[in-house]
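Form 7-S
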Amino acid sequence: MAYFEHEGCTLHYEEYGHGTPLILIHGLGSSCLDWELQVPVLAQHYRLVVVDIRGHGRSDKPRERYSIPGFTADLVALVEHLHLTPAHVVGLSMGGMIAFQLAVDEPQLVKSLCIVNSAPQVKVRTASDYWQWAKRWSLARILSLNTIGKALGTMLFPKPEQAELRRKMTERWAKNDKRAYLASFDAIVGWGVQERLSRITCPTLVVSADHDYTPVAQKEIYVKLLPDARLVVINDSRHATPLDQPDVFNTTLLDFLNTVETTTQDH
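Output:
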């Protein structure tokens, strides 16, 4: 494990393998541990970097307001620190938002983009949107992280044979710093770069679980706004696709990256 400093915050990352750089960015309340089923496979082909976002995992949890552009600035600092340009960038959920922000702000740093169960904006527009977020916001404040982890585990991994995934989810979620978790939650609401998606000209793969929180139709809408993107739907999966369908996810991602690598070599 390794650390680097950015704006007074010590951030944790891990590096594996050799080749073209490939960065994996986890979601809210998670850490680089949640890529455990990807690391051994992807590190055989790429210089793989997994990072704990500020406020998460083994990175510092400064008492301050967090923002998606702020998380992205940390990532840019890591890219510069490790000379990872240009890199393939994969983001899950909130990690996908950070990946989107990076690709619109610093397109030269991104060789390809893979967005998993995410969106280019989280706008609270309708009464129903407002109610959904108000409910999640209140529950996040009232409930213990252990209780939230248990509830999420049951929702994300409902099958009897997924007991181990449920146990890990509960255990890992409980280790979050509550204040940092809430600050990260607040960073998502109201964020968006949808109107700037035309700036993302690199090859983009959008992965959606068939049972993600948001319907596949929503992903179809923003995929049309991206100049070079395609959508792949993974069946029998929920929000944590890399954990509940690791083999299909890994194969889908490697096929995409391989195509990008081959195409760029030909040019």
